[in-house]
TrEMBL record:
Domain Protein YjdM N-terminal span(s) in chain numbering: 3-32
Source domain of life: Bacteria
Keywords: Hydrolase
Protein family per UniProt: Belongs to the YjdM family.
Organism placement in taxonomy: Bacteria, Bacillati, Bacillota, Bacilli, Bacillales
Entry's Gene Ontology molecular function annotations: hydrolase activity
Protein's UniProt name: Phosphonoacetate hydrolase
Annotated transmembrane regions: none
Keyword Nucleotide-binding included in the entry's annotation: no
Pfam families: YjdM, Zn_Ribbon_YjdM
Coiled coil regions, renumbered to chain: none
Residue ranges constituting the Protein YjdM C-terminal domain according to the UniProt record: 46-113
């Protein structure tokens, strides 16, 4: 059986795998396997159109009219997006926009608010 590491936050031995993430059921902490504290892995830095570093929970503003795929509507310039979440992939921002719902955005089309 594979030996999973203890939780880096609360040292719980009851960690489990959820896809590519490791999860601690006691404190709710999630982390990537092999990314324990003290690891020197390359962390992808996500920057907005102006070069400001973005992080989870930031608010951003759309800087260009964007067509919404699968719809005839357009996400207008100046639309404010609150509480973003950074994800891996081509579209590196995951968010919910009032009037549009859940959406993925590219960081090159937003600026930090």
């Amino acid at each position: 059986m594979n030996e999973l590491p203890n939780c880096p936050q609360c040292s719980s031995v009851y960690t489990y795998e959820d896809g590519t993430q490791l999860v601690c059921p006691e404190c709710g902490h999630e982390w990537t396997a092999g990314a324990e504290s003290g690891s020197s892995e390359d962390v992808k830095v996500v920057k907005d159109a102006n070069g400001n570093v973005l992080s989870d929970g930031d608010s951003v503003t759309v800087i260009k009219d964007l067509k919404v795929k699968g719809s005839s509507s357009v996400l207008k310039i100046g639309t404010k997006v609150k509480n973003i979440r950074l994800v891996e992939g081509d579209h590196d921002i995951d968010c919910k926009i009032d009037g549009f719902g859940a959406m993925k955005l590219k960081s090159e089309f937003v600026r930090k608010a």
